[in-house]
Amino acid sequence: MAPCWKRVNYFLGYLRIQQTTGKRFVSEIASRASPSGKNSAFSRLTAEDVSYLKDVVSSRCVVEEKEALEPFNTDWMRKYRGTSSLVLKPNSTEQVSQILQYCNNKKLAVVPQGGNTGLVGGSVPVFDEIILNLSNMNRIRNFDEKSGIVTCEGGIVLEALSNFVSERGYTFPLDLGAKGSCQIGGNLATNAGGTRFLRYGSLHGSTLGLEVVLANGKVLHMLSTLRKDNTGYHIPHIFIGSEGTLGVITAASICCPKKCRSVHTALLGVDSFDKVTELLVRCKDEVGEILSAFEFMDRNAVELATSLLSHVRDPFPKSFPFYVLIETAGSNEKHDEEKLEKFLENCYSEDFISDAVLAQDQSQMNQLWTLRESMPEAVSRSGKSIFKYDLSIPLEHFYGLVTEMRSRLAQHACHVVSWGHIGDCNLHLNISSSEEAYESLSKLIEPYVYEWTRAHGGSISAEHGIGRMKSKYLPISKDKSTLELMKQMKQLLDPVGILNPYKVFSQEA
Amino acid sequence: MAPCWKRVNYFLGYLRIQQTTGKRFVSEIASRASPSGKNSAFSRLTAEDVSYLKDVVSSRCVVEEKEALEPFNTDWMRKYRGTSSLVLKPNSTEQVSQILQYCNNKKLAVVPQGGNTGLVGGSVPVFDEIILNLSNMNRIRNFDEKSGIVTCEGGIVLEALSNFVSERGYTFPLDLGAKGSCQIGGNLATNAGGTRFLRYGSLHGSTLGLEVVLANGKVLHMLSTLRKDNTGYHIPHIFIGSEGTLGVITAASICCPKKCRSVHTALLGVDSFDKVTELLVRCKDEVGEILSAFEFMDRNAVELATSLLSHVRDPFPKSFPFYVLIETAGSNEKHDEEKLEKFLENCYSEDFISDAVLAQDQSQMNQLWTLRESMPEAVSRSGKSIFKYDLSIPLEHFYGLVTEMRSRLAQHACHVVSWGHIGDCNLHLNISSSEEAYESLSKLIEPYVYEWTRAHGGSISAEHGIGRMKSKYLPISKDKSTLELMKQMKQLLDPVGILNPYKVFSQEA
């Protein structure tokens, strides 16, 4: 029999909860994107072009049939939809280089595409751009057992890569909900964050080298596998977070930390937001070096998930205004357990937490993570109009925006729920309502959310990027000189502008 | 009375060792740099220029007297010497902007200078470039007690900054021997590594934002204080490690981890290099999350230090071929002690280490670190001709180069010693000899050291940068396309080429 949840104040019977299936969900809202006009400088794809490009990658690595093109043309939220008639799935860096060289010469626009799990419309065409899908470039080129440095191609699925290093005693420093579909090249291109960011930091820190193909087909061989290398400018960082607009990442070297043999997961019920922030500060202090996740959910989000998804349960007998999921990972089971339990006991006795459960086995751990990871699915089922925001907000203002939005939208029937990587000040604010409410809500929400965020020292994109969704708000995020330099960099690296056009920079900006 | 060293196999009486003074040492070798010709495109400084620039910063922030100019014109190894007649010490970003705008218009070359502690001649003029010294810009602009994020000006001395955050319960993620003189702006410009790199990673990971003045005087306001911010290209990273050739870093936001209340230091004697590497792998596995330093020294280096410096002692009764200094930092004294002791006991019983001492108080910790940090001073005292190399070499070849150089130089009277941050594969190879031996040794050492390093998958500059010393070897470190892109970036950001000329790129390259 599976063990009981270990509770800090009292014990609760074991709860049988299904695991998440890991399947993608797709929201049902119709495409509402209305892009401005197509750039007339681009050429229209001819039969001759298709024939040349087919020769480069071989016919079986091409998708042309209308129905088969659909998933490549549509983002996973079904919010953005392009009309590309050609998907190319190159097998090698050389092929990527040949494709881009040809497209650059012929002025054919290209969308680099990984797992197509982005949430800002960055990985699908706006019009008829050729889709350069990296999924066939999914090999691991090298792994060093002593250092944990892995060199792999851009198209490998994050979960496959993560499993590969895990089986060899290392932890991949990046983990996120879409791991079963997203690819490391796309993760790097969007500087993905996720749940392990708190412990292992950003991809700028763990990436040692990249192989990148420029718009003109030139290959930058920068696949260093050294933790320290100060020979010349640190060029790879320009491509991390450039959302496929400056070059195509065909391979990467990433440094993985040793896998921790002891992992503990706890869920905490908290009765005020001030206590949540205080908890974070104390947790970093007392659990310090073993803290590997500190995730936040509000009551509204948890109630939405438990009411709409049969496999999701709240392990507490009563609900709380706020929930915090803590994970620790360390090298010594006994020490880690002692630290975490002591921390929870202290918090409980000092009234920082109202209740807490500590998972007793892998299955209970999965159940707690299921609650946290089911949030996007719950929101998608709660309404036909969904507004998703991925924001960075300083701790002192973090929950203010959620309260503010609830009050602002009080007259409308909608769900305003939030969760996020609060350990990194990353808030995921979600608002859902009926299809009819879209227009009226839309005006009340945007640009208000972005302006509020900027006014409170935050960022309008913590981890999802700018893509197509936020390009018109980029100017409120960057000062004029920095924006100008971004444009100069684009001009330098992709003078014809074939790489992921209409993304990052708005056509009006 | 101070406690005894705690030894894993047996106890040894307390050793009274003076602490390092923290003073800079200066080697006595004469300037041997022989730069190629001055770029005739630059203007010569006129009385009118001096008058204008003096007005910008005020007279008391200018150095013009020959003798007073000397320390600004000379690097700390006294290997490189310029002939600048003007040092400007601006007080604000606005002043830096005005200076650069003027110099750019007038084609006056400028060397940005921090603490001038670099080892590759990057922070002193080659000819008569104006020195833009940042030391007056040493304010802390903001510190967030809850997140540990500090925003400070570029000219603050690393030790002052480190003390500031330490007093507030945080650890500055960068630490290095020159901390008493070097400045954070210079550290960022050279992407400094140091001893904490193993635990806290590179500055690319911990830097959240920069304020940079471009060659034309434009200010890039990129001082984000958010851990996650994916709005647009990650421009600050271009300047990290660009060695003052792309812009002047006037301020930075850096994320500091919580200070660990429990710190332990141990010195290990090891009888083969294979065991050193095995020890590293095991240490990462068993001590894992609390490992904060793993430093290496060979017997020759330790013997040089103990024989030449009266305040340095080897705590062991006999010498060993290799020494490893381990530091742990964690949140729980008892746990950390148990982990480290258990690890050392295991290693000892399995014959991975021959002996070990564990520091029992702060003074003994300092003594162990003194041994490690006295290495550069010992080498400087051991001869008049000194060759210093800062290399990254994969673990399996790490010590091969040292052995190789000893055999190559066997016929010559010289010291070949090595130490380094082996936890990050960073070797500091040092060769010293008499003044007369310089020419003959020089030919045997260079470019051999660099070629060997490249042939074994290493980097010719792990943390010191390229500067003036290694510019002619840059082409062996970067592929042609990447080098070309570096030059295009330089052209884009500093089209007149006034910023730190003759550095990074060789005039021949």
From TrEMBL, chains A, B:
Residues 80-259 form the FAD-binding PCMH-type domain. Its cofactor is FAD. Keywords: FAD, Flavoprotein, Oxidoreductase. InterPro entries: FAD-bd_oxidored_4_C, FAD-bd_PCMH, FAD-bd_PCMH-like_sf, FAD-bd_PCMH_sub1, FAD-bd_PCMH_sub2, FAD-linked_Oxase-like_C, FAD-oxidored/transferase_4, Oxid_FAD_bind_N. One of its GO terms (cellular component) is mitochondrion. Belongs to the FAD-binding oxidoreductase/transferase type 4 family. This is FAD-binding PCMH-type domain-containing protein. One of its GO terms (molecular function) is oxidoreductase activity. It comes from Galdieria yellowstonensis.
